[in-house]
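Exercise 7b. Backbone tokens:
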């Protein structure tokens, strides 16, 4: 069945609760948002469980670039407008579909593992955009490294976009994350590139079944930053775990009382979902050991590739793969309010466990 919908409007003027994920810039616009954006530019069943492949033809004023997901199939040049045609061949949730229009410099190539990549960075010249371009140039390197951690890269292309507008946040759009310039204001920031590209496995290929399962996205992507540092001359993941634990007193209820199995409306992107989420995974690694842990995360990414999953399914999977009942462990970290007390059962590093 083919359905054709014709409509028009000015998306930037459409707001919900005084907010619009359609961001304009001096010479373009960005369609970028989570958990919602699709309704601002195309009709859909806007839910993570309803995945589809996409073909997008974007017509823009001549001389501007139009970047989207997947592979650039062709660019059709006219007298006053140009049309950029993109194609995604793997299932994608609606909020991961994006569009960035503007005056951008495009670079492209193929990674060492054979993955095509395409980056687009605004032509605005300043120290921030130069640092951003330098980190984005490492996208093929980061993608290939993540594949050694999580299994084969799940999509047909990789890359990144740094537009002229100010979306205020980075987002892991499938195959091509979008990053705001301000993430490089204070210097290089390869961590954000690692985080958003890790989402290609956890969030994009394996997507949440419901938004309450968001820990499956953000916990893994945040832990990937720790793992990158650990394997690239930085502090160990256990050192990052300890620093995070020590920096958050028990009185910090905004951090320790969020229920990660169901953070609730408005708290889907609370700091605890990211940081305590990463702590949970590092604790799991300590609890079951490196071989079992890496088998769990690689197996999980393979088992639910291009599908959807819940936190409960991950707990059951981790328990089965480790041959342990991990429900009490996960209950303490994910669904019990309060700061966990160091113990081997909860996966704390040995040096943090009080000696009897």
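Sequence design result:
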């Amino acid at each position: 069945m083919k359905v054709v919908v014709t409509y028009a409007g000015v998306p930037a003027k459409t707001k919900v609760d005084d907010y619009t994920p359609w961001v304009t810039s001096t010479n373009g616009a960005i369609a970028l948002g989570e958990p919602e954006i699709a309704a601002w530019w195309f009709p859909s069943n806007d839910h993570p469980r309803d995945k589809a492949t996409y073909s997008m033809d974007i017509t823009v004023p001549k001389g501007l670039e139009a970047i989207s997901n997947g592979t650039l199939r062709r660019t059709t040049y006219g007298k006053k407008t140009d049309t950029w045609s993109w194609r995604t061949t793997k299932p994608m949730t609606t909020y991961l579909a994006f569009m960035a229009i503007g005056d951008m410099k495009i670079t492209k190539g193929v990674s060492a593992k054979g993955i095509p990549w395409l980056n687009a960075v605004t032509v605005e010249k300043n120290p921030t955009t130069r640092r951003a371009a330098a980190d984005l140039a490492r996208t093929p390197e980061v993608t290939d490294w993540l594949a050694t951690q999580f299994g084969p890269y799940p999509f047909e292309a990789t890359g990144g976009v740094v537009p002229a507008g100010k979306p205020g946040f980075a987002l892991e759009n499938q195959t091509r994350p979008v990053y705001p310039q301000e993430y490089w204001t204070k210097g290089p920031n390869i961590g954000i590139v690692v985080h958003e590209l890790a989402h290609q496995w956890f969030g994009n290929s394996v997507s949440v079944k419901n938004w309450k399962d968001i820990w499956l996205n953000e916990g893994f992507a945040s832990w990937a930053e720790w793992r990158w540092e650990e394997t690239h001359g930085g502090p160990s993941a256990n050192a990052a775990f300890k620093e995070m634990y020590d920096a958050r007193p028990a009185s910090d209820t905004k951090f320790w009382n969020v229920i990660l199995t169901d953070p609730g409306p408005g708290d889907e992107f609370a700091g605890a979902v990211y940081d305590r989420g990463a702590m949970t995974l590092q604790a799991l690694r300590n609890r079951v050991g490196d071989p079992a842990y890496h088998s769990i995360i690689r197996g999980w990414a393979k088992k639910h590739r291009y599908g959807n999953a819940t936190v409960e399914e991950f707990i059951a999977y981790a328990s089965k793969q480790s041959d342990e009942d991990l429900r009490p462990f996960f209950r303490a970290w994910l669904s019990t309010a309060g700061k966990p007390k160091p113990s081997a059962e909860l996966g704390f590093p040995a040096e943090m466990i009080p000696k009897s």
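Instructor comment: The domain at 207-352 is CATH 1.10.390.10 (Neutral Protease; domain 2). The chain has ten helices and twelve strands.
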